[in-house]
Amino acid sequence: MVGTDRTGVFWWVLVAATLAVAAVLAVRLFRARRLLADSGIPMSRKMLFWGALVYLVSPVDLLPDPVLLDDIGVLLVALRMLHRAGARAVERRAEGTG
């Protein structure tokens, strides 16, 4: 019976962590809207983002799991690269106008 309690706690922690990551993901997705329209962002970064979204909704999964950990991870990496490209574009614009 003790093992069952630990398993239940593990799943609740896993679900809570997934929800926390999903909240961060939602904020990053909202912020990504303007980056996708920015002409200073390389097209490769934009395509990586769209590819990650396709992977998120596709039925194919690298790690079959009930909480979509690999899907969220792929999307977070794509968003991070998109935001880095956005920061570099802002720096280039500041250097060009300064």
Provide a descriptive summary of the structure in words.
Its main location: membrane. The structure is a single chain. The protein is mostly helical and 98 residues long. It has one domain. It has 3 helices and no strands. Helix 1 (2-37) runs parallel beside helix 3.
How are the elements arranged and paired?
Layout: H1 2-37, H2 43-57, H3 69-97
Helix pairs in contact: 1-3, 2-3
Strand fraction band? Answer: under 5%
Total separate domains: 1
Tell me how many strands there are. 0
Helix content: over 70%
* Helical stretch tally: 3
Distance between the termini: 68 Å
Multimeric status of the protein = single chain
Strand pairing plus helix content: what structural class? mainly alpha
**Rg value:** 18 Å
- What summary fits the major beta sheet? none
> Which sequence of SSEs, written as H and E, runs from N to C?
HHH
Shape: elongated
What is the residue-mean pLDDT, rounded to a whole number? 82
Uncertain residue ranges:
none
What are the main properties of this structure?
82% helix, mainly alpha, 98 residues, elongated
Brief synopsis:
This protein is 82% helix and 0% strand.
